[in-house]
Amino acid sequence: MKNNVKYLPIIIFSTLALGVVLGGMLNFPNAADFSNRNNSRSKLNKLIDFIDNEYVDDVSTDSIVNLTVDNILAQLDPHSVYIPPSEQMEVVESMKGNFVGIGVNFYMYNDSVAVIKPVENGPSAKAGIKAGDRILYADKTKLYGRKLPSDSLFSKLKGTVGSDIELTIYRKSERKKLKIKIKRDVIPLKSVDVALLLGNKTGYIKINRFAETTYREFMLGITKLKQQGAKSLVIDVRDNGGGYMEEAVAIADELLTDKQLIVFTKNKNGNVDKTFATKKGSFETGNVFVLINENSASASEILAGAIQDNDRGTIVGRRSFGKGLVQREMDFADGSSVRLTIARYYTPTGRSIQKPYSKGNEAYFKESEARFGNGELFEKDSIKVLDTLQFKTKKGKIVYGGGGIVPDVFVPIEVEHGNESTAYLLQSGIVGNFVFEQLDKDRSAFKGLNFEEFKTKMNQTDLYFNLFQKFIFKNGLDLNFGKSKSLVKRYLNAEFARQLYGESYYYEIVLKEDAMIKKVLNQK
To answer: Which of the residues are catalytic?
Structure first.
């Protein structure tokens, strides 16, 4: 149930492959005893052996198996996926919520590993690594000028807890090389970006995915916000493609009262498993708002559905992605795994929000693109819902199944003059790359400025707006920001703030003019 979401207006999931069918055929007794179905499985194994032993040219049978597996999975559903060994570790770390390493955010800039920012209180920060440093060597391994892929770089910097690594760095600001010894440690991968107050009484929590640590991170955030006086809560799961269902359920439990239904699942045998809220919730009273958009999927939709169907809060934004399938991950001896759909989940009113996939995977994922064409990202009346899939909450509110969570309060995509591509671009990695390059050229331009002075400086200049426009054209993107100046400047200023001061400062700038946040504050 783990998905990833990129910045373009379509959610692209991992390509498919599977070993469960193949793996299940290896320990049968005798071909003479097989049923017709098992004969087919035996045939597939024999064909691979024939190719391996007799085919005229050398062929990687592993790649043939993967192709076969891809084709098998393509007949199932878009979310049953195979994860090869080369990708499995990254997936595990992302969902576990931590890894062992040196603790730096880096960017490959002109074939060198450039440190964007060391992780606060991490091993690199404690050892003296600074933003802008170039990592030339990890021990004796050369890292620059080699066009190494990111996974190779990560492998050089990761290790076991307490192990030492010596980095040779070039510090541009001082124009000298340094050797710095770092002791590796556990580095958290935050799934809750920030927990802060909007005004005096409204708490805001941004969840970027549902990992093993998300509920714990959420509880730390909600505890802090309540201590600061929060009486209302905004949970932002925009662009959150999902993750562990259990984490979303645990968060919903904190918001709902005892015995309220959170979600139920149904498998191929018709077995139903219901999950209810328990007695003690940390935020069972007070207004709740959940922010969603077209890239909110899976566990995000479970949380939003539970809040909506129990009349507990208000869903704000745009129709969510529409993924109502439950996956279980199954591991293989070679380090790969398969994530296989084992059930469907239903919101408390009994609706499935899974959108159709009978036309194939390509059409399924392109449905997100179609929402631009049919206008539903701009006008609520353009949202396509089936009247035959109406459900009612206990208070009589009509909700819909058959394709995502339809918000209670619609907010169109935040664009100026209809340029949705600009809106998505501004939340992509390219903005961070541009900002790093500008800081790298003249980091001293911001030296000694506190945050308020920084905001004043940025609001008074169009320098970086103009440079960003040139940067975009140089990179082959035909986007003119002339009619979106205020929007572009807001995201540029926010990214500068993130790299100079930290994550919470990014959100302080972005949220101030955020259309959904404004709508929430006006609802109260």
So the answer is: 298, 309, 323
